[in-house]
Amino acid sequence: MDHPRAFVPEGVIPACLLPFDCNLNIDEQAYRSHLNDIASVEGVSAITINGHAAEVHALTLDEQKRALVVTRETLGERMPIVAGVFTNSSLEAARMARTAQDEGADALLVFPPDVMALGGHLRPEMISEHVRRITDASDLPIVLFQYPLASNLSYSLGSLLELLNRFPQIRAVKDQIGDGNLHERHIRELHALDQPVKVLTTHSAWLLGSLVLGCDGLLSGAGSVIADLQVALFRAVKAGDLKKAQAINDRIYPTVRAFYDPPLLDMHNRMKEALVHLGRLKEAHVRPPLMKLHEAEIEKIGRCMKQAGINREMAYAKVS
Question: Which of 7, 137, 241, 312 might form a disulfide with 106, Cβ 3.0–4.6 angstroms?
Fold first, then answer.
């Protein structure tokens, strides 16, 4: 089946944050403003919701559905929506996929069930069944999330190719394998298929190096803050202008230190604080077990934004 909105997952696809109020309820007004900020960046090809950047691990199913409804209301038809499918239950994953399609999503970002970390690589038929139930419930294009090797949730190349062969709805892989050698092989192997599959990098800590290997785009939470710089970098790489790409990457590098220094679980916590510093978000609240950053780290984020040339006086960084 072909979905009527034939979205191709490529280009710059920021994964948006989800603002909460001081009582840790979803702040819908702040969320709508955040969506509009990202959608206003010329060159963004889609927005991902209900992903890691949105603290999906801490959202109820009703909240995930509400986020999708609010996103479609806010964006209208201006921007395609990629909706995360994050759950340990394949039955629930199918229901989530159907709901996403019914509520106007244009594609699905399918996460591996966390339970697979207990040895799922030894039973690849399990992830195949997980994806089968999703594709039986929805005909939306799928972006398959390839986790880092260290997570014990990544797919071997053989398993990955088997999934792509069995489920042609998988149009792209969000690759976070964390190994440069494997990352390049994924790009080459997926592009060489009879029906090539797009590769979206999420190696945001080494984005330039990843993109020059031939990725078709990027899907990253950092795009919630620096979508314009990501667009500029992606365009420079696609144009083969390495000198310009290096200059833009020099602008991006301070944000890498702001967001991705250890511990990594605070990366989206830090992005919220960056938006507060830049005047794009009034307050930064995260749901437990995440906790408010220490003041010293919040000050570091401010310094890094200054080093990147991003300040409160501009909506986004000036990219030359």
Answer: 7
- The CB-side HSE value for 221 (13 A sphere, CA atoms) comes to 27
Q: Closest Cα to residue 219, out of 31, 34, 82?
A: 82
Q: Which amino acid is at 246?
A: Q
With a cut of 60, say whether residue 252 has pLDDT above it.
Answer: yes
What distance in Å separates the CA atoms of residue 97 and residue 138, rounded to the nearest whole number? 6
Which element (helix H / strand E) includes 187?
helix 180-191
Q: Taking Cα atoms as reference points, which of 257, 297, 251 lies closest to residue 273?
A: 297
Whether 241 shows a pLDDT value over 60: the answer reads yes
pLDDT at 206: 97
> Would residue 50 be called left, alpha or beta, if left means φ above 0 and alpha means ψ between -120 and 50 degrees?
left
Q: How far is the C-alpha of 91 from the C-alpha of 105, rounded, in Å?
A: 19
Residues 6+ apart with CB under 8 A from 110: 85, 93, 130, 131, 134, 142, 143, 144, 145
Please, what is the average pLDDT of the chain?
A: 95
Domain boundaries, the chain: 11-243
Give dist(CA 19, CA 41) in Å, integer: 19
Residue located via tokens 């709508």: 32
- Tokens 């990219």, residue? 319
Beta-carbon neighbour count of residue 31 at 10 Å?
23
Phi, psi for 110 (deg, rounded to 5) = -95, 115
Res 1: pLDDT: 36
pLDDT exceeds cutoff 50 at 111: yes
- What is the tens place of the pLDDT at every residue in 15-48? 999 999 999 999 999 999 999 999 999 999 999 9
Question: Do 162 and 191 form a contact (C-beta atoms < 8 A)?
Answer: no
- Cα 52 to its chain centre, rounded Å, is 7
pLDDT score of 119 more than 90: yes
Whose CA is closest to 108, among 137, 147, 129, 128?
A: 137
CATH superfamily of 11-243: Aldolase class I (3.20.20.70)
Read off φ and ψ for residue 254, nearest 5 degrees.
-60, -30
